[in-house]
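Worked example

This section walks through a single chain of length 333. The input is the sequence exactly as stored; nothing has been trimmed or padded.
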Amino acid sequence: MITATKSPRFLISQTAFIGDVILATALLEQLHHAYPDAVLDMLVRKGNEGLLAKHPFLNEVLIWDKKGGKYKDLWRLLGVIRSRQYDVVLNLQRFGATGALTALSQAKTTIGFDKNPFSRFFTYQIEHRMEPGIHEIDRNLGLLRPLGVTGPAKRPKLYPSASDYEAVKAYQMQPYVCMAPMSVWFTKQYPAERWIELIRAFPEEYTIFLLGAPPDRAACDQILAQSGRPNGINLAGKLSLLQSAALQQSARMNYVNDSAPLHLCSAMNAPTTAIFCSTVPDFGFGPLADVSRVVQTHENLSCKPCNLHGRKKCPLGHFRCAWGIEQDELLTF
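Given that input, the structure is written out below as C-alpha cells.
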C-alpha cells in the first residue's frame, strides 16, 4: 500500500492501439476504488486521447506524438513526467521506448512487465503471462499487486459526454444493430462477402449501422451497396470513438471483429457478438460485456491461431478460419 501525506500521483503508460487503451481504463477504475483521492494521469499515443475526453477520474492525459519526431517527443515527455514527480509509474507495455521512459521517470515506484527490455531498472517486475483464462485486464491488474491492490479485475469503462449521446440520438428511433466490418489486419477481418450475406439475412425491422474509422468508409459503402439493404446506414468516419460507443450501448446487438469496436462494447457493457477469425479469445482479448459471445469456426485448424496480432493475408491462402464460420450462428442472439 502507498502511505503518503498528500494524494498519491499515478501515471499509467499505454501508448499502443485503441483497444489497448480501452482495456487499460480498467486500471483507472481499480485505482480510483483503491485510492479515491489519487491523482491519475495517463500517457497515450497521439490520436487516442479522444477516448479519454472528460473522463471523471483522470487529471491529465499526456500525449506522445510517435509520428511527429518519435524520439524527440519522447525526450520532451521525459521532462514533463519528471516535473510531475509521480509516486507510481505503471508501464503496461513490453517495448523499449516506454520502458526507458519508465526507468528514467524519477518516480518513487516504477512497475512494469518482466518482458520489457528495461524491466531490470523497474522497482517491481511483474510476470507477463499469456495463457487461457487470463484476460488482458487480469494481466494489467497484476501490476497493482505490489501496491496491495488485488482483484477481481474491474471492467474497462468509457464515459461519453452528454453531447456524444445527443449526437447519436437521432439514430436510435428504431431497433438497430451495429456492425464494424473492418480491421487493421486482414486475417482478423470477417470477409466482406460474409458481411453482405449477414446484412441481407437480418430481419427487416432492424436498422443496420456500419461503424469504423474514416479509412473504412469506402469499403463500408461497398458492403452496403452490394447488400441492397434499404435501411442500412454507413457511419464509418462520421462518429467519434465515444459517439460510436454511445450508439453501441443501446444496440440490440453489436457485430465486431477482434478489434477496437469489440473493446468499445466491453467498456460500454453493450451486447456483443465477437467474430474471431485467425486469432483466439485465449490470447486475452475476448468480450467482457454481460451479454456477449464469441463466434468462430468449429473446424479444428492446425494453423489457427497463426499469430497474436493478425496478418496482411492468410499465409496458407485458404483463410478457412474465416470462411468456416457459420452464418446461422451469427444470426442467433
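What to look for: The chain has two domains: 9-147, 162-331.
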